[in-house]
Amino acid sequence: MSPPFIFQQWELLVLDRLGWELSAVTPYSILDHLLRTVDLASANNNADPATIRTHAETFQALAATEYVFCGQSPAVVALGCLGAALRGLRFDALGETMLALVEATGVSSESVVACMEQIEVSITLSMSGASFKPEQQKSASSSIPPPPASSTAPKVIPQPGNSAYHHQHQSTTPTDVVDIASMEMGSLIAA
Question: Of 25, 34, 75, 93, which has the fewest CB atoms closer than 10 Å, so is most exposed?
Fold first, then answer.
């Protein structure tokens, strides 16, 4: 037996004794299953699955850095990130799609809606340079208006005169964690 094999066997034995699971389910691993469960293109003529995936992955990356999401199940966080992405992109069939996904996963719709709202608050605080902390939730919710009951909030910047507007939406939500960091640096420089 070679030394690396022996070390690997010892590492596996230690991990087994400690009860550590190295192949844990994460919201990112659930997102693929969720996106395959529903047909986003037929539910909305303007839906671009790649854009929806990019937004949901960005929200998941941000949720991974915030403490408030650590205690939630990966399915709730994945659904919340996907729902927040769909809401931000003004997805036409948001209610029906989320209902189908909630039924497919078996999680409560209330926890998904609460997670969506926490993600939106976290994005707003992150873009302003603050971090989402549990003790800030009440003060942040008083200074930041809650998301509207309907998805009529202007989250998409229209491009008048652009014939490709219906095929390409520009959302006001950042699409990469680097975009969030650059926005934070911009606000620090401006201050």
Answer: 25
